[in-house]
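Input (Peptidase M24 domain-containing protein):
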Amino acid sequence: MIALCAAALTPAEAREAKRRWDELCQIRKDKLDQILPQAMRENGIDMWLVASREGHADPNAAMLGGGYVGDVGYYIFTDRGGGRIERAALGIGGAAFDQCPLYDIKGDPAMVQRFVAERNPKRIGIDVATEIGAADGLSHSLHGKLRETLGATFAARLVSAEKLVSDVRARHTITEIAAFARAGEYSRTIAERALSNEVIRPGHTTTGDVAWWMMERLQEEGLGDSFGLPSIYVLGPGERGPVSGDHVIQPGDLITMDWGVNYQLSYTDMKRMAYVLKPGENAPPAGVQRAFDRALGIRRMILDEIRPGVTAGAALAAVNRKVAATKGYVLGRYDDPSADPKASDVVIGSHSVGDLGHGSGPSMADFNPLRMTYTLRPSNFLSIELFLYTVVPEWGDRKIKIPLEDNGVVTERGFEWSYPANSRILLVK
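Output:
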């Protein structure tokens, strides 16, 4: 069996594995060289101590190089002046870890107290947080062990690294931006193939069939996912069917898809829509197309307010004011539209993305209250997500949800897509 498995790995496949490893190593080097020093100094943290256990890795461990931890391991970053942050790995190793040389010092975890005392940091950032899960990796027991190990003097200097973690994860180098763009291209290509006649045979194919076809493509490409099974469901003309379930896709259905792809620590979150043509049709009903076009107009309002130097919350408030001042629109609640058939409800949840499907950085979404207080900076990744609830005259008085979502990067110019964003309703014959 071993010989058969080895024979199945072609030279091209082996080259792709090495290519991805080299790319990931460069991403990690660039993050620690270029992003970490500025983030630590802005947050007034002169030591960032990240602790992991075997079977309970900190959420930042993969970004910091991964590696094998036997019992307890520490990634320790110390600002000792100059242009670079000193990097130490205590109790972390392994062949892959060693082949991407990120750390100046490697040692035994038993030396952590002496190591910290020699550097005498004033503020030691640790991964405990109030809102951001990626900054909350320190377990209760390991927190207690760390405090005991460091002793009272240095335990009193421990502070939350929540904002630091957000900044490190949400600011990106060119190698990360390139990987994020590639993840986006994988996402949209697979999604648009899924919502086509390549996969869908009206009257036979279920929404679950489409979702599992997409998951199979991830297996083939060696990719991960952001949210598990893609969400595939029918928006109209009838009531929404089961998500990624046994609904048989029929002519006249308006379908949506919501999913994300993970490539090289970059995660996407995006949507696409498709209309299944009835015999004799060559386009969606006029009311459906009109609703989609109106959603594109809301997206333009969002893009116009994104610029570096303002908080994400201020940008969202500016968009909401525009929407509220536009005739025919009201600010709504997710999946709970108003009863007025003449009003179109708008819900905006343009959140951070990239380091996760729902990311750790500045977020234009009221479900991320802390992240709304963070300032938008060049290289932040955003998912431009919105929902429009509006009546489609051809389908009666019930409001239909029109979702839009695509990903891109905050730049000095404002916001730029990292791959071709959705501009049309896909058609299935």
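The first helix runs from residue 2 to 8.
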